Amino acid sequence: MAGNTFGEIFKVTTFGESHGEAMGCIVDGCPAGLEISISDIEEELKRRRPNSALGSRDEEDKPEILSGIYQGKTLGTPIAIIVRNTNQKSSDYDELKEIYRPSHADFTWEAKYGFRDHRGGGRSSGRETLSRVAAGAIAKKFLLINGITISAVMTPSISAEKLEELKKEGDSAGGIIHCEVKAGTTGLLVGLGEPVFDKLDARLAAAILSIGACKGIEFGAGFSSANMKGSEYNALPCSGILGGISSGKDLSFNAVFKPTPSIAKKQKALAKDGSTKDIEIKGRHDVCIVPRAVPVVEAMTAITIADFLLLSRCARI
Question: Which of 216, 152, 149, 153 minimizes the C-alpha distance to 186?
Answer without folding.
Answer: 149
